[in-house]
Design a protein that fits this description.
The structure holds two protein chains of two kinds. Chain A is of the alpha+beta class. Chain A has a four-stranded mixed beta sheet with strand order 2-1-3-4, covered by helices on one side. In chain A, a hairpin with a 2-residue loop joins strand 3 and strand 4. Chain B has 17 helices and nine strands.
């Protein structure tokens, strides 16, 4: 979808800014909001770039730098902590060779941490894009990542 | 088994949540029809009489909130009132609102329309956290179907009352679950808290009278309309009537959720609802209410889980999160996780919280590494968090004191002596 078409879906009111930013980011191939995106939003809402930047930079779901095709959000809240998320996280970082916030060289994954995902009965938990994975172990992490890699390889992207 | 109720969880697991017909087949939207046939004052009166208190954490009387909102004077022509549903569930250990939105979205919509009718609100917003993808999908679908069936929109069911409800999305800020911050975010701003007063009932969204309620609170309203306030008051305790969804996580056999009467004992939740401790390990503590909550020890296992009984013991019910810890868990490491959480989520608007949350993490780091003078570090943590409770602008900076004071009160020996251990139940 063209960016201008996305903007046109929303009335030019500041209260729509988070919806617009989500929509633009979801339609961005690299899962982020560029400076040009923010300028377009500012123009649409008849406000300044700095005020849009102020909003976009506040909320942790928005990224102002390019990310991978799949966003991994692993929960570091107290419940998942007790359930041993540290081991799972370390395994994930080892397999992907990534630090928090970084993207794999093939641009397939970005690794992020998040506060409570509300999946506490399945702790430790994470999401990859919109899919929830729970009761994670170091072994299950490897399987999940391998599935995504396999799928990506078969699609040739 | 302990008696479970189906008020907020009326249809969860029993209907296809995407089907409005399924919902209507089980009596859905009958409460709205009944409410619309009586004057709006009666709706507010019934909810007040039911004694329903906010299920989001604070426990404020829902009826009073509605009364204040409906009474707030406003200049003619500008007399717009808003209703906002707080679906920005983010308190660690809490997932009750997600269960309702994913499993029975129309119940929330119906409750919200009735509440809006009570206070005379013409526009409504449901602010859902951005991570709750399935909830967003289900609520969006429910709103569209409710519109088609005339339960939303102009002249609802021929009553002359009109209401539109829109979905708004959060984007990963815990603080936006605080009601005044949520209003800022709804207006399209950074999620910074407002100074209270004015309260939302007087000056809320866009400066207009606004009723803001949690998902679970609104989901009680249809049943109260049908069965009456007197029936509802028979459940729960004198000052905390009704039922509550508790979400039980941590070292129990069957982590999950259950809707039971207010005033259930903590031990019943752990041993009868959640199947007991995992691997039969000894119980050590439960963290009630999430990160903005309190630790309770074994001696409080029989405490009545309601707003006031817990308050008497220096604990909180909060959102209904019950995070259970077995003997292998370290209170120190749990505190560490909680304090890092607050440091990360502090918005930075006020100095006591911006600086204070960082200092708490540093102090705990010192305590973790200390061989002697541990008692001094503990006292410093208490002092610092109490200072923040007195001076921080919003509930975030006022919350670390809850976990710290309860940990010190009940587990001081452990904090003073135990070296760091990473052991945990498996």
């Amino acid at each position: 979808m063209k960016k201008t078409d996305i903007l046109e879906k929303y009335l030019p009111r500041m209260e729509n800014v988070l919806l617009i930013l989500h929509d633009l980011q979801n339609n961005s191939r690299m899962n982020y909001l560029s400076e040009k995106d923010l300028s377009l939003v500012a123009h649409h809402l008849n406000t300044t770039l700095s005020s849009i930047y102020g909003v976009a930079s506040y909320y942790s779901m928005f990224s102002l730098t390019p990310r991978g095709a799949h966003i991994i959000r692993i929960c570091r809240s107290p419940v998942c902590h007790c359930a041993g998320v540290d081991d799972v996280f370390n395994e994930l970082a080892r397999i992907l060779k990534l630090d928090v916030g970084a993207t794999t060289p093939d641009r397939l994954f970005t690794l992020e941490t998040t506060e409570c995902l509300g999946q506490c009965d399945l702790a430790p938990a994470m999401t990859i894009d919109h899919v929830v994975y729970g009761k994670l172990t170091a072994a299950s992490i490897a399987t999940i990542i391998a599935q995504y890699r396999k799928k990506s390889a078969s699609q040739g992207d | 088994m302990i008696t479970e109720y189906n008020i907020a969880l009326r249809n969860v697991g029993k209907i296809n949540p995407a089907s409005i017909q399924d919902y209507m087949d089980r009596g859905g939207y009958e409460a709205l029809k009944k409410a619309l046939q009586s004057p709006s004052e009666k709706v507010v009166h019934d909810i007040t009489k039911s004694g329903l208190r906010g299920r989001g954490g604070a426990g404020f009387s829902t009826g009073l909130k509605k009364k204040y909102t409906s009474q707030a004077s406003c200049v003619l022509l500008e007399c717009m009132r808003y209703i906002v549903c707080n679906a920005d569930e983010g308190e660690p250990g809490t997932f009750k609102d997600r269960i309702i939105m994913e499993g029975d979205p129309h119940l929330l919509v119906e409750g919200m329309v009735i509440a809006a009718y009570g206070v005379g609100a013409e526009r409504g917003y449901i602010y859902i956290r951005g991570e709750y993808h399935q909830s967003i999908t289900m609520i969006r679908n429910a709103l569209a179907h409710a519109h088609v069936h005339g339960f939303l929109g102009n002249n609802i069911l021929g009553s002359g009352f009109s209401l539109d409800i829109e979905i708004k999305l959060g984007a990963g800020s815990y603080l936006c679950g605080e009601e005044l911050t949520l209003l800022e975010s709804l207006e399209g701003k950074r999620g910074y808290p407002r100074i209270k007063p004015p309260f939302p009932a007087e000056s809320g969204l866009f400066g207009k009278p606004t009723l803001i309620n949690n998902v679970e609170t609104l989901s009680h309203i249809p049943t109260i309309m049908i069965n009456g306030a007197r029936w509802y008051r028979q459940l729960g305790t004198e000052t905390s009537p009704g039922t509550k969804i508790f979400t039980i996580s941590g070292d129990v056999k069957n982590p999950g959720y259950a809707e039971v009467e207010m005033g259930v004992s903590l031990s019943d939740l752990i041993y009868r609802v959640a199947g007991g401790m995992k691997d039969e390990r000894p119980f050590k503590a439960a963290l009630l209410g999430g990160a903005a909550g309190t630790f309770v020890p074994e001696s409080l296992l029989d405490v009545s889980m309601d707003f006031d009984a817990l308050k008497e013991k220096g604990a909180v019910l909060g959102s209904g999160a019950v995070i259970v810890m077995c003997n292998d868990q370290s209170i120190l490491m749990m505190l560490d996780s909680i304090l890092r959480f607050f440091e990360h989520e502090s918005c930075g608007k006020c100095v006591p919280c911006r600086v204070g949350t960082k200092q708490l993490v540093d102090l705990l780091e010192k305590l973790k590494g200390a061989d002697d003078k541990r008692s001094d570090h503990i006292d410093a943590l208490v002092y610092q968090s109490e200072l923040m409770a007195k001076t921080a602008l919003c509930p975030l900076g006022q919350s670390p004191v809850l976990a710290i004071n309860s940990a010190v009160r009940y587990f001081r020996d452990e904090l003073e002596t135990t070296q760091i251990s990473q052991s945990r139940c498996r």
